[in-house]
Amino acid sequence: MPASLPPQRHRAGRRAAPLLALLFILAGGPEARSADPVVVHIDNFTFGPDTITVAPGTAVTWINGDDIPHTVVAKDRLFRSKALDTEDRYTFVFTQPGKYPYFCSLHPHMTGTVVVTGPAG
Amino acid sequence: MPDHDDGTLNRRGALACMTWAGTGLLWSLGGGVPRAVGLETAVATEAPSAPFRFLQISDSHVGFDKAANPDALGTLREAVAKIRLLPDKPDFIIHTGDISHLSKEREFDDADQILRETGVPLFFVPGEHDLLDDDQGGAYRARYGQGSRGAGWYSFDRHGIHFVGLVNVVDLKAGGLGNLGPAQLDWLDRDLAGLASSTPVVVFAHIPLWTVYPEWGWGTQDGARALASLKRFGSVTVLNGHIHQIIQKVEGTITFHTARSTAFPQPAPGTAPSPGPVKLPAGELRKVLGVASVTFVRGAEPLAIVDTPLAG
Ligand SMILES: [Cu+2]
């Protein structure tokens, strides 16, 4: 997983293990991912990591660690956060497979991409 | 007010202690050629009499309370106190945006209350921090947008000089820089159309209209088109904010200048991992900003504009 994750994720993951195994079987391969939450950190006017790949249904949360507000805005305006002040967060759940380029509407040189994998098969 | 060695607080002493706060620039236009002096010098040495003067103030970020300056409202207050001590009142003040930090009504209220104390008319253009309300600028336009068009652009004339306030913080494109947009550029062409080329023009906008440092978004994507429209004029002065430091250059008949913030400094282009606020210990902050201010002060001489290297 590219992003650092909240610690409880691992416990949740263990509890969900039988279900995950079932999902892997249904999805037909280990490349299918669970929909565990993913965090993107905003630090030094950068989305980190700038590209993440997630499974459909994944909640992606952006957390602003800068002293300056930022926003998270999809290039196609599918999602748009309010201005995130320091330590503010914004979450969007990605349901449809596809590529979602986004940027900060205050500092448009800040760009990132969420890739949502398609169901295998 | 800080105390001084002799226990008194004369005006000059008080000012020296306030030099750390970003201030404003005093512009005087004689014969269409703008000249600027730092505020400290203007107050301390009694500025030379000029036919017409105005002030630029920028990036007050009222509401900002982070480490780089826990009291941005206080430093705006100090800047205004300095303005009030000027022996000759400027005709008006141009605020080049980021009045507020988060576009909250309370921030705008506080800023207005303090800026009003200058006792002179104020002209504004928005910074990106002024358009953060749910209505994406509704609060700004309700407060400052009277008589403006589009996202808040307008022009006016004073003493034979044509002033144009542009908005380049709206509808920014992913991966891009500041943006004026075709509607505003068309309006600019129409606005300038009737003017003789000998008319001095002052253009002000938040983000630099010229490319200072694209890696940090310090520039305006379609700024070149605006500058092309201004090429025929004999004297053009472009005043911007946004980058919280003084950078100047001259290109033909166009003089570019960016103003300091009254809230916090930002790093020189490319000298830090990001353009975020520079955090310094309080004493350090005052010292460094004070030094930066001295380098700019040129007394009554015409402003010598230095093309600052952009590479970090
Ligand atoms: Cu940003």
Structure, explained:
The complex is a heterodimer of chains A (121) and B (312). The two termini of chain A are 22 Å apart. Chain A is α/β, with parallel strands linked by helices and 121 residues long. Chain A has helices at residues 8-15, 17-27; strands at 38-43, 46-48, 51-54, 58-64, 73-74, 89-94, 98-103, 111-116. Helix content of chain A is 16%, strand content 33%. Chain A is built from 2 helices and 8 strands, in the order H-H-E-E-E-E-E-E-E-E. Chain A has one domain (31-116): Sandwich (Immunoglobulin-like), CATH 2.60.40. Chain A is globular and about 40 Å long. The model of chain A is unreliable at 1-33 (pLDDT under 50). In chain B, helix 3 runs parallel beside helix 4 (105-116) and helix 6 (182-193) runs parallel beside helix 7. Chain B is built from 8 helices and 11 strands. Chain B has one domain: Metallo-dependent phosphatases (Purple Acid Phosphatase, chain A, domain 2). In chain B, helix 3 (72-84) links the parallel strand 3 (53-57) and strand 4. With 312 residues, chain B is an alpha/beta fold. Residues 1-23, 29-33, 37-50 and 286-312 of chain B have low confidence and may be disordered. The N and C termini of chain B lie far apart (37 Å). The radius of gyration of chain B is 18 Å and the shape is globular. Classes of the chains: A alpha/beta (121), B alpha/beta (312). The A-B interface holds A 44-46, 66-69, 73, 75, 82-83, 85-86, 101-103, 105-111 and B 66-68, 101-103, 128-129, 132, 134, 172-177, 214-217, 273-277, 279. The complex binds copper (II) ion (CU).
Under the CATH scheme, the architecture of chain A is Sandwich
Major sheet of chain A: size, sense and barrel closure?
A: 4 strands, mixed
Lateral strand order in the biggest sheet of chain B: 6-7-8-9-11-10
- Work out the largest interface and the residue count of each chain: A-B, 23 and 26 residues
Q: How many β strands of chain B by DSSP?
A: 11
Label the overall shape of chain A: globular
Major sheet details of chain B: 6 strands, mixed
What Rg of chain B do the Cα atoms give?
A: 18 Å
Question: Which ligands occur here?
Answer: copper (II) ion
Residue-averaged pLDDT of chain A: 80
The CATH superfamily name of chain B is: Metallo-dependent phosphatases
Helical content of chain A, roughly?
10-25%
Give me the oligomer status: heterodimer
Helix/strand structural class of chain A: alpha/beta
